[in-house]
Design a protein that fits this description.
- The protein has about 240 residues and is of the alpha+beta class.
- The chain folds into 3 domains: about 80 residues, Cytochrome Bc1 Complex, Chain D, domain 2 (Orthogonal Bundle); about 70 residues, Cytochrome Bc1 Complex, Chain D, domain 2, CATH 1.10.760.10; about 45 residues, SH3 type barrels.
- About 35% of the residues lie in helices and about 10% in strands.
- The chain contains 9 helices and 5 strands.
- A 5-stranded antiparallel beta sheet has the order 4-3-2-1-5, with no helix packed on it.
- A hairpin with a 5-residue loop joins β1 and β2.
- α2 crosses α5 and α8 packs across α9.
- The longest helix is centred in the middle third of the chain and has 14 residues.
- The termini are far apart.
- The structure holds heme C (2 copies).
Length: about 240
Amino acid sequence: MKALWLLLLALPAFPQSLDTGKRIFESQCALCHGPDGSGGRGPSLRKAKLKKAPDDDALKKAIADGLPPEMPGAWQLHPREVDATAAYVRSLGKLVVEEIPGIPAAGEEIFNKTGCANCHIVNGNGNARGPELSAIGARRNAKHLRESILTPNSFLPEDFLLIELTDAAGKTVKGVKANEDLFSIQLVLPNGRHASFDKATLKNLKRLTGQSTMPAFPSIPAADLDNLVAYLASLKGAE
Ligand code: HEC
Ligand code: HEC
């Protein structure tokens, strides 16, 4: 009987096993980081170094509290489950990294030639009609980047919501939501300008969830696409 007690007391200290971590990962993280950790909507975690989780404490904090605005905190996990998940994430880091065909420098040229900078800022250059891409390679994996270019509607970042509204004068405009409170809404219009609207005077306000202002680029040659993706994947932000 005593032995059993000891066993029961000792048990909670050990579910740090990779199995527990793997199970939690598959149920709560795989949706964004892929079942094998190679990424998707979230970045690949199969790297020796994680920028936002340089040490184990930072990693556990990222898991428990999340990384706003896109990664939710796993507040429902017990600290021991957080430990197990962190250990599993570290084990993924020992696996091989994602191979990306394509040449970043060639992709940068295509980026500038194709007009991507009309809507995206990279390292201070470009316009902010779409999300800044200076660190996109640290946030998304290659497959996601590829899909973002071929079918922009397939995924919309949390902070990009397209709005269509009709103002008091009857004019209909579309834009990306910059800000909103009870009384007013601010949009970034297709020309890059910001505009504020008094909500009480609007004739119509539609939230176009699932729609993107980004044009699709389905006819981009495969080699150019590889280069573009390699370029975007190389953008990791300031060290
Ligand atoms: C809804 C999608 C989503 C879920 C669910 C999610 N993540 Fe994330 N995760 C992200 C995104 C997006 C980022 C990039 C955040 C950033 O850089 O701002 C990220 C970043 C991270 C990072 C930092 C990576 C780096 O290179 O610094 C770690 C570690 C991480 N997630 C682990 C986890 C774990 C473990 C879970 C499950 C408990 C999880 N995530 C669940 C979307 C998600
Ligand atoms: C007319 C403006 C516009 C142009 C041109 C444009 N984009 Fe976008 N892009 C957007 C907007 C708005 C979003 C956010 C909504 C979405 O994901 O579709 C976006 C999203 C993205 C994303 C996903 C960002 C994320 O956080 O996951 C990538 C990658 C991207 N664009 C790359 C490109 C590349 C490469 C080009 C050039 C081939 C390009 N864009 C041209 C407006 C544009």
